[in-house]
Automatic annotation (TrEMBL):
<keyword id="KW-1133">Transmembrane helix</keyword>
<feature type="region of interest" description="Disordered">
    <location>
        <begin position="18"/>
        <end position="39"/>
    </location>
</feature>
<keyword id="KW-0325">Glycoprotein</keyword>
<dbReference type="GO" id="GO:0046983">
    <property type="term" value="F:protein dimerization activity"/>
</dbReference>
<dbReference type="InterPro" id="IPR032394">
    <property type="entry name" value="Anoct_dimer"/>
</dbReference>
<feature type="domain" description="Anoctamin transmembrane">
    <location>
        <begin position="279"/>
        <end position="516"/>
    </location>
</feature>
<feature type="transmembrane region" description="Helical">
    <location>
        <begin position="290"/>
        <end position="317"/>
    </location>
</feature>
<dbReference type="Pfam" id="PF16178">
    <property type="entry name" value="Anoct_dimer"/>
</dbReference>
<protein>
    <recommendedName>
        <fullName>Anoctamin</fullName>
    </recommendedName>
</protein>
<dbReference type="InterPro" id="IPR007632">
    <property type="entry name" value="Anoctamin"/>
</dbReference>
<feature type="domain" description="Anoctamin dimerisation">
    <location>
        <begin position="60"/>
        <end position="276"/>
    </location>
</feature>
<feature type="transmembrane region" description="Helical">
    <location>
        <begin position="453"/>
        <end position="476"/>
    </location>
</feature>
<keyword id="KW-0812">Transmembrane</keyword>
<keyword id="KW-1003">Cell membrane</keyword>
<dbReference type="GO" id="GO:0005254">
    <property type="term" value="F:chloride channel activity"/>
</dbReference>
<dbReference type="GO" id="GO:0005886">
    <property type="term" value="C:plasma membrane"/>
</dbReference>
<feature type="transmembrane region" description="Helical">
    <location>
        <begin position="369"/>
        <end position="388"/>
    </location>
</feature>
Length: 516
C-alpha cells in the first residue's frame, strides 16, 4: 500500500493514503528506481485533496493537528429518541468548548458504526485543570539526588536504557491556575498535559454533561454513563498511540505504547525492571500504582517460592525416612490396628495400613518443613506489608501523590450524587456550597444498607453451614462406597480416600459460591 507523507504544523507527521493504491502491485514496488520514478509521476497527477484519505493509524483529526482525546461510537438505528439525545448531548459538548468530528459508518469495519471523535482545546484543558486542581510543574527541583548505590552496575542488565525511559528532571508542582499560566513551565501547550490527563479531563466533562435542552431541565438526563446504559452510544473510550506490535511509519521518536510493548509487556522481558514512569505517563497514576504493587508482590513471592521449594524438596528427600508412614504400612503395626467404621451404616471396620499409600503421598506436603514454612509465611506477610508501605510512600513522593485520594474525594463529586442530592450548604472549610443529604434521607439509606449487609452476611453463614453439612454427609457416603468390599472400586479406593474425595468436591462447591 502506497503512502504519502505530509508535514503539518510544528513537527507533527501525518500519513495520507492515496485512494488509488490498488493499481500498484508488490512487483512494481520491487523494481527499484523505475518504480520510484513511476510513483513520483503518479503523485504529481493526484494532487487534489479529495483523492487523499487520512491514515487510520493516527490519533489526530483529519487536519493532522488536533489530537483525539476521546471517542464515542454509536449505531444509527433510526430511533428518534436516541437521535434527539445525541443531538442535545453533542450540542452541549460543543457549548463546553469541545471540538467534535464524526467518522462515517462507511469507514467502519461493519459499515454500521459511527465514531464521534472529541478534542479538547487548550482553553478547555486549562479551565478544567483549574477546576480539578491538577498538579503541574512550575519550577525544576534543585534538591540533590541520593548517593550512588555501591555495585549499581550489576543491575544494568535488568534496567532499560535511558533512550527508552527518557528520564525527566524533578519538578516542584502546584495545582493549575488558569489565571497564572505564565508561572508554569509551559513550552508547548499541545503537549503540556499528557494524554492520560487529557483523557481524564474529557471524561469528567462527558460524565457531567447533560443531554436535555435549555427549555426543559431533567436533572437525571446527565452523563455518558446513562447514554451508554440506554443504548444511545455503544462505547466510550480513549485511543492508544497507534500500533504496538511494530514501529509506525515516520514515527520519530517511537510511541510510548510501542516502547512499553517492546521492552516491558513481553515474556522475554520478564527479568527487566518495570518502567513505572513510562506506565504512569501513558496510563496514569492509578494504573502505575497497580503495576508497582503487582511487581513488588511478585518480587516478594520469589522469596516465599524459594522457601516453599526448599520445604517440598525436604519432603522428597525424607520420603524414604518417614517413620510414621513406615509404621502405618507395617503389617505388624498398622495391620494390627483396627479402626472404627467411617459411617454408621454399611461401613465396616478397617485396618490402619489400608491408608499406606495416601500417608506416603501426604508426607510430601505435610512434614516437619511445613511447620517452618507456616512460621516463615507469617513473618513474610508482615514484612511484605511494611516494605510495601515504604515503597508506596516513595512513589507518592516521586509522583506527587501525597493526599491524592483525599483531594479527589473533595474535588470530584460523583455525578449521580449531584443529581439526586438537591440540597446545598456552605462548607465551613472551603467556603463553597456543596451538596448534602438530609438526616431523614441518610437514615433511610443507612437502614437499607444495613438490611442488605445483614442479608448477605446471613446468606454467607448459611452457605458455610451448608458446606459443613455437605462435608459430613458426603464423607459418610464416600466412606460407605469406597470401603464396601462388594463394590468394584477397590483399586480407586487405594488412591482416593473419603477425606480426599470430600475435600475436593467441597472445594469445588466453595469455588462456585465465591464466583457467584
Amino acid at each position: 500500500m502506497r503512502r504519502i507523507t505530509a508535514k503539518a504544523k510544528e513537527e507533527t507527521l501525518i500519513e495520507l493514503q492515496s485512494a488509488s493504491d490498488s493499481q500498484f502491485t508488490d512487483e512494481s514496488r520491487r523494481n527499484g528506481v523505475g518504480s520510484l520514478l513511476s510513483e513520483t509521476a503518479s503523485l504529481a497527477e493526484q494532487t487534489e485533496t479529495d483523492k487523499l484519505q487520512p491514515n487510520r493509524d493516527t490519533v489526530f483529526f483529519r487536519d493532522g493537528v488536533r489530537r483525539i482525546d476521546f471517542v464515542l461510537s454509536y449505531i444509527d438505528d433510526k430511533d428518534e429518541r436516541k437521535q434527539e439525545r445525541r443531538r442535545e448531548f453533542e450540542a452541549n459538548l460543543e457549548k463546553e468548548g469541545l471540538e467534535l468530528e464524526t467518522e462515517d459508518k462507511s469507514d467502519s469495519k461493519d459499515h454500521k458504526t459511527y465514531f464521534l471523535k472529541i478534542h479538547a482545546p487548550w482553553n478547555v484543558l486549562a479551565k478544567y485543570a483549574d477546576i480539578l486542581k491538577i498538579k503541574v510543574p512550575f519550577k525544576e527541583s534543585d534538591f540533590p539526588h541520593g548517593r550512588e548505590v555501591p555495585l549499581e552496575f550489576l543491575s544494568c542488565p535488568f534496567r532499560l536504557p535511558d533512550s527508552i525511559i527518557h528520564p525527566q528532571p524533578d519538578y516542584f508542582t502546584s495545582p493549575f491556575d488558569k489565571n497564572k499560566v505564565e508561572f508554569f513551565l509551559i513550552s508547548d501547550k499541545s503537549t503540556f498535559f499528557p494524554p492520560s490527563t487529557r483523557n481524564r479531563i474529557v471524561y469528567y466533562i462527558l460524565a457531567h454533561c447533560p443531554y436535555y435542552s435549555e427549555g426543559r431541565k431533567d436533572r437525571e438526563k446527565t452523563g455518558i454513563k446513562r447514554l451508554l446504559s440506554n443504548g444511545t452510544y455503544t462505547a466510550a473510550f480513549p485511543l492508544h498511540d497507534g500500533r504496538y506490535w511494530k514501529k509506525a511509519r515516520n514515527s520519530e521518536p517511537e510511541s510510548e505504547r510501542y516502547n512499553l510493548y517492546k521492552h516491558w509487556a513481553r515474556f522475554l522481558c520478564f527479568y527487566k525492571e518495570q518502567p513505572l514512569n513510562l506506565i504512569r505517563k501513558y496510563y496514569g497514576e492509578k494504573i502505575g500504582i497497580y503495576f508497582a504493587w503487582l511487581g513488588f508482590y511478585t518480587e516478594m513471592l520469589f522469596f516465599a517460592a524459594i522457601i516453599g521449594l526448599i520445604c517440598f524438596t525436604y519432603g522428597v528427600l525424607s520420603y524414604d525416612d518417614n517413620v510414621s508412614s513406615k509404621e502405618i504400612c507395617d503389617a505388624e503395626v498398622g495391620g494390627s490396628i483396627l479402626m472404627c467404621p467411617l459411617c454408621d451404616k454399611k461401613c465396616p471396620f478397617w485396618k490402619l495400613n489400608s491408608t499406606c499409600l495416601s500417608s506416603w503421598q501426604s508426607h510430601l506436603f505435610d512434614n516437619e518443613g511445613t511447620v517452618f514454612f507456616a512460621i516463615f509465611m507469617g513473618i513474610w506477610v508482615t514484612l511484605f506489608l511494611e516494605f510495601w508501605k515504604r515503597r508506596q510512600a516513595r512513589l507518592e513522593y516521586e509522583w506527587d501523590l501525597v493526599d491524592f485520594e483525599e483531594e479527589q474525594q473533595q474535588l470530584q463529586i460523583r455525578p449521580e450524587f449531584e443529581i439526586k442530592c438537591t440540597n446545598r450548604r456552605l462548607n465551613k472549610i472551603t467556603q463553597e456550597m456543596e451538596p448534602y443529604l438530609t438526616i431523614h434521607s441518610r437514615c433511610a439509606r443507612y437502614s437499607l444498607s444495613a438490611a442488605t449487609v445483614l442479608f448477605w452476611i446471613s446468606l454467607i453463614v448459611a452457605c458455610i453451614i451448608g458446606v459443613i453439612a455437605y462435608r459430613l454427609a458426603v464423607y459418610a457416603a464416600f466412606a460407605s462406597i469406597i470401603k464396601d468390599p462388594m463394590r468394584r472400586i477397590q483399586l480407586v479406593g487405594r488412591f482416593i480416600t473419603p477425606q480426599l474425595a470430600t475435600s475436593v468436591t467441597a472445594s469445588c462447591i466453595n469455588f462456585v459460591i465465591i464466583m457467584i
